[in-house]
Design goal:
Length: 224
């Protein structure tokens, strides 16, 4: 029986990036597995120099640039970005280090099918410099959250979190590296849940397998 059955890889995923694309690479690797249930239909960057575009090209994924510097404001940029994304007909849009604040129009257009990953245990430490803020607060644990995107910055319904212990003497850089390892585990996991029809957004909550998840999402201990 053929392993490339047409029933596989039905969920089309567009990935938005701004930089090197390490989470993109984790998704590329996951999509390349024989048992993958999603395919990457496009990688789009707001920066033409982003290394993630090279990763996409090498993996045979259509890559495009919509440079925010070519537009007079966020509204016109986001409309152009929507147009480019929709050309690839994705079922899901994934933000993977996409360093732009999105307009309400953009978020509403993809409501319920727009995911982001944030390096903290949301709702803690929305915004930037999360690792340093966790250390300065004297926290015993830190981590990363995958969530649906809503109009509130880093405030959409949490889907899954990986909890990373903070070790004595940790620097922000050391902590960031350990958190990033977990990013590469839970982002493909959340995308796979969505691709299989197991995950959806219900009002202000995430639902997995027909059950509402806790406000913090499904919590996982850090995987080695």
């Amino acid at each position: 029986m053929s392993s490339d059955s047409p029933s596989k890889k039905q969920c089309r995923v567009a990935v938005l990036i701004s930089g090197s694309g390490t989470n993109l690479q984790a998704l590329i690797d996951a999509a390349a597995r024989d048992d993958a249930d999603f395919t990457l239909s496009a990688v789009i960057s707001n920066k033409p120099e982003a290394y993630g575009l090279t990763r996409a090209t090498e993996a045979g994924i259509p890559a495009a640039v919509v440079d925010h510097r070519d537009f007079p404001n966020r509204d016109t940029f986001d409309r152009a970005l929507i147009e480019e994304i929709d050309r690839h007909n994705p079922d899901l849009v994934v933000l993977a280090g996409f360093m732009r604040i999105l307009t309400p129009e953009f978020v509403r257009h993809y409501s319920g099918r727009l995911l982001n990953i944030h390096p903290s245990l949301l709702p803690k430490y929305q915004g930037l410099h999360t690792h340093q803020r966790a250390l300065e607060a004297g926290d015993s644990e830190h981590g990363v959250t995958v969530h649906f995107v809503t109009e509130e910055l880093d405030g959409g319904p949490a889907i899954v979190q990986a909890v990373v212990p903070i070790e004595a003497g940790d620097t922000a850089e050391q902590l960031a590296k350990r958190v990033q390892v977990q990013e590469h585990v839970i982002y493909p996991l959340a995308v796979s849940w969505f691709a299989r029809g197991r995950l959806r957004m219900v009002e202000d909550r995430s639902e997995l397998d027909g059950e509402l998840l806790p406000r913090c999402g499904k919590q996982l201990a850090a995987a080695d």
